[in-house]
Design a protein that fits this description.
Layout (H helix, E strand, L loop, with lengths): L3 E6 L3 H11 L4 E7 L3 H9 L4 E3 L2 H8 L5 E4 L6 H10 L3 E4 L7 H14 L3 E3 L7 H11 L6 E9 L20 H4 L3 H17 L2 E9 L9 E8 L5 E7 L10 E8 L3 E3 L8 H17 L14 H16 L7 H17 L14
Parallel strand pairs: 1-2, 1-4, 2-3, 4-5, 5-6, 7-10
Antiparallel strand pairs: 7-11, 8-9, 9-10, 11-12
């Protein structure tokens, strides 16, 4: 297996997580990283990254001849430009969700990918969650019968932190022109993708946005989807109103078939704290005996981020196209647009994808 040279663009929470994942892969060389934060760049240097830049454009311009791919985890409004520059530099691209903040940009990205002949995979990480993988296998084997209803819920902090672990909030989160929206694009993006994963493409039947905190973006949403190829209906609930501390993670998916049902709650570790301790002990033993550790396995939910990157890099090594494509990202953004349009408020408080 050949070595893949990559650059990590953006070293916020997710970017740093991706950086750490890459550093645990034997066939990956992280040769460059970029971020505006000097502290973030210093951390990268301390981890052995030799080339650091305070502007992602410098990284692409100066390192593209040495790179095979980039992992991008920038604020939403920078996705289109960073993807375009990376593809035009001849690089394969992994991009954190959302693909972009508008349908127009997402369509342009799809055309750029086709024109470039390069690989692009958006970070639809929930497909790689062990519970979701098991549910997909069960559904595909026909054990649930025909899927009638899929309920999907994700209630988290969003950018709002618990008082015990305060953190600053970058301004772009609450600017709909730069974020694309609030809780719906942040959390609902994953749930819309999961509905498509199980039931195929969809239309929006109903959507309602919540503004409990009187923010410029929605802090909660309920969306009802209809499958385009079957009678399956999806009910999605998302919110930023629950100040939990990791490893608590309020997420669930239930597949209701006409023969049986299955829920993530049936497949998760019984106690996430005990799970973390057990996996941490296993990794310690793996390390002292010279075996490969399983990064992020102790977190359960975050391990899917490692798995999606591993899958993307395997696609590069095997010269295969990722099963999650720019088109999947585009369709998710299109469905989000439908949901935002359905829930239009008066112009002073309306949240929408930046389509104009």
């Amino acid at each position: 297996m050949k070595k893949i040279n990559i650059g990590v663009i953006g070293l916020g929470n997710m970017g740093y997580l991706h950086l750490m994942s890459c550093l645990h892969m034997n066939d990956i060389n992280v040769i460059a990283a970029s971020d505006k934060s000097k502290n973030a760049l210093k951390k990268a240097e301390n981890l052995g990254v030799k080339n650091v830049y305070d502007d992602y454009q410098y990284l692409i311009n100066k390192q593209s001849k040495e790179l095979d791919a980039v992992v991008i985890s920038l604020p939403n409004f920078l996705h289109f430009d960073s993807i375009q520059q990376s593809l035009e530099a001849g690089l394969d691209v992994f991009i954190e969700k959302p693909l972009s903040i508008s349908v127009d940009e997402s369509k342009k990205i799809s055309r750029l990918v086709e024109k470039s002949g390069k690989k692009l995979m958006p970070g639809h990480c929930m497909r790689f969650l062990p519970a979701i993988e098991k549910m997909k296998k069960t559904a595909d084997e026909g054990k649930l019968g025909n899927l009638e209803i899929i309920t999907l819920e994700s209630i988290q902090n969003g950018p709002l932190s618990h008082g015990l672990v305060p953190k600053p909030i970058p301004g772009w989160w609450f600017d709909p022109k730069r974020s694309g929206g609030g809780a719906l694009i942040d959390l609902g993006y994953h749930l819309i993708d999961l509905f498509r994963f199980f039931a195929g493409d969809a239309d929006v039947e109903f959507s309602c946005l919540d503004y409990k905190y009187n923010l410029p973006v929605e802090d909660g949403a309920t969306v009802i989807l209809n499958s385009k190829k079957s009678s399956t209906r999806g009910v999605i609930n998302v919110g930023w109103f629950e100040k939990t501390i990791f490893p608590k993670f309020n997420f669930r998916t239930i597949l209701h078939g006409d023969a049986d049902f299955i829920s993530t709650d049936q497949l998760l570790p019984r106690n996430l704290y005990i799970h973390a301790i057990e996996e941490g002990a296993k990794n310690f033993l793996r390390r002292v005996t010279g075996r490969k550790i399983h990064p992020l396995s102790y977190t359960y939910y975050y391990e899917c981020h490692f798995k999606e990157l591993r899958y993307f890099f395997n696609c590069i090594n095997n010269d295969t196209n990722p099963s999650i494509s720019a088109i999947d990202g585009l369709r998710t953004v299109e469905i989000l647009e439908e949901a935002y349009k359905f829930s239009q408020r008066d112009s002073s408080t309306q949240t929408h994808l930046s389509l104009h």
